[in-house]
Structures are given as C-alpha cells and as structure tokens.
Amino acid sequence: MKLASFIVADRSSFGLVENDEIADVGALLKDRYADLKALIADGGFAEAAARAPEAKRISLSDAVLLPVIPNPGKIFCVGHNYESHRQETGRAKTEHPSIFLRFADSQTGHGQKLLRPAVSTMFDFEGELAVVIGQGGRAIAPERALDHVAGYACYNDASVRDWQWHTHQFTPGKNFPGTGAFGPWLVTADEVGDPAQLSVTTRLNGEVVQSQPTAEMIFPIPAIIAYVSQFTPLSPGDVIVTGTPGGVGAKRQPPLWLKDGDRIEVEIPKVGLLVNTVECERPAA
C-alpha cells in the first residue's frame, strides 16, 4: 500500500496512491484521523484500504504532495552510515551510529522546490532511505525492530555544507527551510519486505551521482532502531533517515554544488522516485 499526504483545493488530507490517482481517504476519516500520522498511530491501514473504494479520486497532477509525514515528532538522521561515505569524509570508524536531528519544518515534498539558502554557496545532495515508525517503544530489541516499522520512503537530506562545517555540530547545516525532501509517499513495510535488499540511487540532471545497496549500511536498520530507542522513546510517525552513500558533491574534485534549476532525483526500487528542482532562496529583506 502507498499512502501520501497532500493538499488539494487548500485542504490538507491523506490517501492511498493507486496508479496516477489518490483515493482521498482522509476526507472520509477526518473525524477520526487528523492526518497520516494519526492513522499510523491507530494502526488504521486496514481501515484506510477498506474505505478507499468509496473515496473521491484525485489526480496526482492536481495534488500538492507534502512531506510523507508533515508533522513527525522526531526526525533522526544517521551520519556516515555507508563505508564509501565514511571513507570519502575521512571520518574514523565508530562503535555506534552517529545520530543528529532534523526539524519537521525543514522538510518539503515531492515535486516541490528544494531551497538553496541565500546565505550558502555549498548546497549538497544526500539520497537516503527513510523509515517511518508505526509502533512506538523504548529499548526495542534488534530482532523485533522491523515489527515497529510502518513503512519506507525516499529522502533527500540535502546539506548546507558551509553552515554544517561552522563547528563539529551538524544542526545548522541540516535545518534550513525546504532542504529535507521526503516522498513521494510511504510504502508499507509488508510491500517492501527486507529493507536490506534495496538500493539507493541519486541522479543530478539525469546523471547518476550516488548508487549503493542498502545491504552495505554500516549500521543496518534494526540496529539503528534499537540504538535510538535506548535513549528516547520512539513514537508512531517518527522518522529515521538512514544515511547516504558515497559520492556527495562536497567530496568531488572540483566540488559539485546544487544550483538554481538543477533537477535532483532519489530512487529506491519498491519505494519510489523522489524528484525536486533546486531553487535559490531570495535574500531576506
């Protein structure tokens, strides 16, 4: 099942994606579920599927797609989680995953503008697989971790490198508005199967710039879920962005920075194709 969050006619909703249409289940269930996160928290996938045949159909071309979960309580990002990326950055090996946070209001949806901040000249791509938590918990065992996953989506954890490199803390470079592209939809865990059998490919203006199997993550998804849930409770709708392969623009010679008008794609088989166009933010008045 594919589920998307969207806006149509100035109304936000969610629904099931079927071919080139969305079944607007959110309109039918609005008295029970304010958004997709609420549906996930209540385990409402079966109910959504059952109501889909009676839902109004909306063409994908008529909908503005939002970040898959527009309002996650937490967004965890994993740094240097592929050996190729760890080596190109010169980072030392670690016994535990490197975790940093992204804010919900830094996100944007499929087909929307990926904003290069006016104060930056070093805007970079990072294609990644995102995990959406379905069942919350604390101190989750690795062998049970995938039972807590609602589904998966594509993510472009675009990085404002000059701000990321101000200090050793990543937060400023990862939280400018419109820099975290998340979409186009959530594919439920049952349809994806083993997330270690996927691959992440990023294309810039049609040219492949990153491509690697998810089996080559240093810390696989169950280990990440187990680690994060040790220090904080996971809640339905929380997002874990699992790391980017090698090939980022910052480590190329010369560096390859995103510029106005660039088309950036993140593709993960079984999950989707996330497409955004880069736009330079106007300087603040």
Key features of this structure:
catalytic activity; alpha+beta; Fumarylacetoacetase_C_sf; 2 domains; FAH; 5-oxopent-3-ene-1,2,5-tricarboxylate decarboxylase; twelve-stranded mixed β-sheet; five-stranded mixed β-sheet; Fumarylacetoacetate hydrolase, domain 2; 285 residues
Describe the protein.
The protein has 285 residues and is of the alpha+beta class. It folds into 2 domains: 2-65, no CATH class; 75-280, Fumarylacetoacetase-like, C-terminal domain (Fumarylacetoacetate hydrolase, domain 2, Alpha-Beta Complex), CATH 3.90.850.10. Helices cover 15% and strands 35% of the residues. It has helices spanning 25-28, 36-41, 45-51, 83-89, 161-164, 189-192, 221-231; strands at residues 2-8, 11-18, 21-23, 57-59, 64-65, 75-79, 98-102, 107-108, 113-116, 123-124, 127-133, 149-157, 159-160, 180-188, 199-204, 207-213, 239-241, 263-268, 272-280. The strands form 3 sheets. Strands 1, 2, 3, 4, 5, 6, 7, 8, 11, 12, 14 and 17 form a 12-stranded mixed sheet that branches. The longest helix has 11 residues, at 221-231.
CATH topology of the largest domain: Fumarylacetoacetate hydrolase, domain 2
Q: What is the tally of beta strands?
A: 19
Percent helix, as a range, is 10-25%
Total number of helices: 7
Per CATH, which architecture of the largest domain?
Alpha-Beta Complex
Unreliable sequence segments = none
- Main beta sheet: 12 strands, mixed
Distance between the termini: 45 Å
CATH class of the largest domain: Alpha Beta
